[in-house]
Amino acid sequence: MSKTTLAIIAGLSAATGAAVTASIFSSRPERKTYPTPTTVTPTQTAPSAPLPSHVRPFKDIIPPTNPNGLFQYGFPGPINDLHPTLSTTSSFDRRTRNPMWVAEHITPSSISANNADRKFSIFLEDDTIPEKFRAKLEDYARSGYDRGHQVPAADAKWSQDALDQTFLLSNMCPQVGNGFNRDYWAHFEDFCRRLTNNYPSVRIVTGPLYLPKRDPDDGKWRVSYEVIGSPPNVAVPTHFYKVIFAEDGKTGGNVSLGAFVLPNAPISNDKPLRDFEVPVDAIERASGLEFASKLPLQRRRKLCEEVHCSVIVREYMDRQKDLMGPSVRRKSLPGPP
Is 149 designated active site? Predict the structure, then answer.
């Protein structure tokens, strides 16, 4: 996928972007797999080409300087704070004050458990992040954005401590509230939980994206996002992604992959979830991350070809009551139409 293609996706409005996203990505030809060339050992070794007279091998050069001497004062970075908790594992981006990715693991038993109550949890700064790099509670005050969970609290009701740790600000990004965090994004999170009725093990990676948009004045593509806080230091993502690994529970078994990118903007509840489906490598190119480099192609399946990828609309207050009340066992997702 070219940089221009991804930029086009980013520049589309939330109202129309999803459908066009689907059409662009679906029209992308499948990557061809070419056979690995066989190396033929010649019967006679050809002599190495002589180096030009002005080129010397590096091993023969003794530099008069030592740039690595800087490290005696400290390593500049980047440093990606890897932070495991009971319910999450995450990598934190000190520059944006947001996580780069947050991973979780849910199962039928973890989702059906009801050993915690959200009313006892509070938002907290993450003191494992150096103070000058962490997001702070006051950064979100009167910002107009929700403290948006990357791993939702509802996925960690199996323990009060596990649920509490989802309220660390290292698990948050600024998200649009009405129409997104409290609506479509929450329906999407519910879809992920319902996958545990079809698969014994589901792993999910969630994180922010900062995608380019075309400037209407000069036609050039630029990455532009709001920054909140005082001083302004917490970046507001333009989009969010989820990469889903639905495992069949067998050692070396099949893994159904699903990847989605949603704009950080109000989304109509009647928008099909599959309109936001993208190839995994589209998210990898946009984020600079890799998600399935060790998963062989023969073990991969397409999630939305095995289950019906769709959201169920539930009102915000009803979801909050469910989070603080007994867990409701949901029906399995139907197969694709």
Answer: yes
